[in-house]
Design brief:
This protein is of the alpha/beta class. The chain has ten helices and ten strands. The strands form three sheets. Strands 2-1-3-4-5-8 form a six-stranded parallel β-sheet, sandwiched between helices. α2 crosses α6 and α4 runs parallel beside α5.
Length: 253
């Protein structure tokens, strides 16, 4: 069965819009491992995005982090996909997109609506916070409480799920929340051999956030406030069902 899937994938050409970042690289690697021709598209592709998408069977869409108008960005990609003949699109969103207290999450909820109304065959992936956001063996300055609970997603797991959804039939119209495991921020840091230093959000804004664009800094502060009160729990069953192996567990690096 896996051999048949591999040979079927060899006929597929998949664009990864935003393919030069860490998420795009993980998706590109997973597509290549399944035998598909992955086409990572960075900023230069926007000169003629429809042309860059030409000949592709599907597109994976990753908006730039904290984009000021993600719905418009996704609408531009969807429009280019339609003009180029791409019939299938998978959007990289976020777990719990409709959270009014987090503006960048709401932007993703609106971008999801764009995809659902696109007329293309669509799927949406909603990963939790990345495990890779926590560096191993370091001191992590955390502007929210260490006991906040999350559903953490490993990048390799997300990449493999994305490749499967892009290459297999049966995922059209599906929205999948994705987490590899659930734990608190403190538990993840301990498993990675890191330590946590809790800092006040204002202190974070004055140090780590000092050089950020004010809008981005404010959006991040809103996210930290939400995390402090509620964390971001995500169920793990969809990830387990979509992988051909167990997802990453809460273990060391």
């Amino acid at each position: 069965m896996l051999v048949l899937e591999f040979w079927g994938a060899m006929d597929k050409r998949v664009a990864v819009v935003g393919g030069t970042g860490k998420t795009g690289r993980a998706v590109t690697a997973a597509l290549s491992a399944r035998g598909a021709a992955a086409v990572p598209l960075g900023r230069a592709a926007w000169i003629d995005l429809a042309g860059a998408l030409g000949g592709c069977d599907a597109a994976y869409v990753i908006a730039p982090n904290m984009h000021p108008d993600e719905p418009a960005y996704v609408e531009s990609v969807v429009g280019a996909a339609c003009r180029s003949g791409v019939s299938r699109v998978v959007l990289h969103s976020v777990a719990s997109p409709y959270v009014p207290a987090m503006p960048h999450h709401v932007c993703k909820a609106l971008a999801e609506d764009v995809v659902r109304r696109s007329g293309l065959a669509w799927s949406i992936l909603q990963p939790g916070a990345y495990v890779q956001n926590f560096a191993a063996g370091t001191t992590i300055r955390l502007p929210y409480r260490a006991g906040a609970r999350f559903g953490f997603a490993d990048l390799d797991d997300v990449g493999e799920v994305a490749a499967r959804v892009l290459l297999e039939d049966g995922h059209e119209g599906a929205t999948y929340e994705l987490a590899s495991f659930g734990c608190t921020a403190a538990e993840l840091a301990a498993a990675l051999g890191s330590t946590i230093e809790e800092v006040r959000p204002r202190r974070w804004a004055a140090v780590e956030g000092k050089k950020l664009e004010p809008r981005v800094r404010d959006w991040l502060l809103a996210m930290f406030a939400y995390y402090d009160g509620h964390g971001l729990p995500v169920g793990t069953l969809p990830m387990r069902m979509l992988l051909d192996r167990p997802p990453r567990a809460l273990v060391g690096p």
